[in-house]
Amino acid sequence: MQVLVRDNNVDQALRVLKKKMQREGLFREMKARSAFEKPSEKRAREKAEAIRRQRKLARKKLQREGLLPAPKKVLRAR
């Protein structure tokens, strides 16, 4: 993973790096690898993730078909 530092602005580069790592799921993976996870906990976690994925896909499908309203966009002041 690579992040460019512009105008010696290391703070901004760190923010960009953290955001990229978050998107890739590195923080979640590091936390999972830091301690042993019992097989029963792993099954429960994977099942919950699968259910979450399916619900998200179904929600997006209904939004595309117009049966559910699209989420409202949040305006952020910069």
TrEMBL record:
What gene name is given for the protein in this entry? Answer: rpsU
What name has this protein been given in UniProt?
A: Small ribosomal subunit protein bS21
What family does the database annotate?
A: Belongs to the bacterial ribosomal protein bS21 family.
**Membrane-spanning regions, if any?**
none
**GO CC, one annotated term:** ribonucleoprotein complex
Q: Care to name a GO molecular-function term for this sequence?
A: structural constituent of ribosome
Presence of the UniProt keyword Zinc-finger in the record: no
UniProt cross-references to InterPro entries, sorted A to Z: Ribosomal_bS21 (IPR001911), Ribosomal_bS21_sf (IPR038380)
| Keyword terms, alphabetized | Ribonucleoprotein, Ribosomal protein
GO annotation terms (biological process): translation
* Keyword match Ribonucleoprotein: yes
- One matching Pfam family, short form? Ribosomal_S21
